[in-house]
Amino acid sequence: MLTYDVLIVGSGGAGLYAALKSRMEEDLHVAVLTKVYPTRSHTGAAQGGVNAALANKDRTDTWEDHWFDTVKGSDYLADQDAAELMCREAPQVIREMEHWGCPFDRTKEGKIAQRPFGGASKIRACYAADKIGHVMLHTLYEQGLRHGVNYFNEWQTLSLLHDGQRCLGVNALDIRSGKLHTIQAKAVILATGGYGRIFWTRTSNAYGNTGDGAALAYRAGLALKDMEFVQFHPTGLRRTGILMTEGARGEGGYLLNALGERFMSNYAPEKMELGPRDLVSRAIETEVREGRGGSDGEVFLDITHLGKERIAKRLPQIRQLCIDFEGVDPVLEPIPIKPTAHYSMGGIHTDFNGLTPIEGIYAAGEAGCVSVHGANRLGGNSLLDILVFGRRAGVHALEYARHTEFKPMPKEALAPAETCIKALTDGDSKETIADIRKDMGDLMAEKAGIYRDAAGLTQAVAGLVELKARYKRLKIKDKSNIFNTELGAALELGNMLDLAQVIAQGALERAESRGAHYREDFTKRDDKEWLKHTLATRNSDETPKLHFEPVTITRFQPEARTY
User: Fold this and answer.
1) What are the catalytic residues?
2) Keywords for this entry (predicted)?
3) What is the distance between the alpha carbons of residues 176 and 154, in angstroms, rounded to a whole number?
4) Contact criterion met (CB below 8 Å) for 357 and 64
5) Which terminus, N or C, of the chain has the lesser number of Cβ atoms within 10 Å?
6) What is the pTM of this model?
């Protein structure tokens, strides 16, 4: 049996930072278990910037300004103590990344360059052209190799093992051989990213973003928090949902409807295109609904006025993506875009160190929910989240593992994984992964997307029960062991269906509009009844059980958001 002091599941920015910090004591054995090669993780798709109040561009910026912008952007659902901690520590983690060699763009004075981002009152997004996630990911992976972190690439985690009080480890599938393994660990950090693929093709997320860590925690009895809050980024490519960075608007890009009107003046007259993402996405959806969109339900992101030289320097990846996936050169013509499911504000309920109620089990990054984003995340705060809380989880897990002994692993520890695989491989059925997955994506996009109401959400809840019943009849046709991609897709589909139920049930219960959660039958924010977090645990019948906890308010009293 494989044994590690600290095991990180997931190899994005949060996981790699956590692994690096866990490995700072060289006598500890640390490993990263990931279903993809680490530098293919979805952090690499982040384009625009990472927030920190360095005051390099705007000398008046402070961490307190950043804190207020974050709380306001969250529609006052963020826990203010958690948001304060993140904004205070932001300059520290950026400087640490800089010292490790992360190649940020620079000002003429040699300082880290910063650009405007949506919902921010000051210029604070640190960037590297339009490839910030890519350079961060490679920097962290390089440092992990240097410090002796072990990597299990192309392994899929199937179950989280604990005795009710303490972590024991995980069960995992070696995708390359098809063999099942139990891995013993004093501490496990879940850093598997978000679950945008629940909306299937209407998402900017990679195919691997199927909420694996959140689903593992949910089935292990841990609570998921604020799952109904799913952010739709305003600017995804029309056909594929591929992200067009907020940095394009930060550089001065315009949003135009099919009539050529710069319509954001009707929705955010001060901030215009740099309003918060929930507001801009609803504005686009409203333009399309009212007949001012294109023939395919799109509007347009126009950066032609920036000029070829500036686009080549600041937005080179954006240009290439447009040419490759839309056949459009943004130097010459506007980019057709639609809102796309982009970020999961909800996740595994944790404290400031990523710790869950079970000793030794942590979550960090998009898989976790410390509640720094509340009902709507500001652009540039996701990469900051993975750095601050990946770092804190790694440091805390290191200290925990140093002072903890391994607990004996039960002989039957592998049984749940074996049962799961057997259920999917035995027998035969006409149900297919592709059909169930498409039906799930269509249902969630239509009934639990940008605009929601009780009737649609009730249909979503009922439809997901039916889809789960179909999933239980699913039998995969590929019985091979080596690189069985059909088995992997089936396991991911089960994870997504579990989480989709939590999203839909939470959205149905929350009878208000707040941030990314917009109810057409309850259009106002209701602080009296709903200034609280949704927590979901799993019933014995596999449906979500919801309860609620108050939001932590330390300084900023809720007020109307205007931009």
Assistant:
1) 277
2) Cell membrane, Electron transport, FAD, Flavoprotein, Membrane, Nucleotide-binding, Oxidoreductase, Transport
3) 7
4) no
5) N
6) 0.95
* Residue 540 structure tokens: 């014995």
Domain containing 436 equals: 415-524
Max intra-chain CA distance, the chain: 67
Contact 523, 282 (CB under 8 A): no
CA-atom Rg of the chain in angstroms = 22
CA–CA gap between residue 66 and residue 53 (Å, rounded): 7
pLDDT tens digits, 378-421 = 999 999 999 999 999 999 999 999 999 999 999 999 998 999 99
Q: Which residues pair with 34 in a beta bridge?
A: 153
Instruction: Determine contact, residues 126/104, Cβ cutoff 8 Å.
Output: yes
Burial class (CB in 10 A: 0-12, 13-18, 19+), 287: buried
CATH code (residue 489) = 1.20.58.100
pLDDT tens track for 29-53: 999 999 999 999 999 999 989 999 9
Residue at which a domain ends, from 340, 373, 395: 340
> For residues 32 and 8, is the Cβ–Cβ distance under 8 A?
yes
Cα dihedral 91/96/102/108 (nearest 10): 50
Confirm whether 255 is domain-assigned: yes
Beta bridge partners of 170: 160, 183
293 phi and psi angles, rounded to 5 deg: -100, 175
What single string gives the DSSP state of each residue in 314-362? Answer: H-HHHHHHHHHHHS--TTTSPEEEEEEEEEES-EEE--TTSB-SSBTEE
Contact present, 198 and 211 (Cβ < 8 Å) = yes
Coil, strand, or helix at residue 532? strand
**Distance set, CA 324 to CA 28, 133, 321, 518 (Å):** 45, 20, 5, 34
- Residue 424: CB partners within 8 Å, gap ≥ 6? 474, 475, 476, 487, 490, 491
- 420 and 513 in a single domain? The answer is yes
Closest CA to 257 of 213, 297, 317: 297
- Which residue in this structure is represented by tokens 């969630």? 444
SS3 121: coil
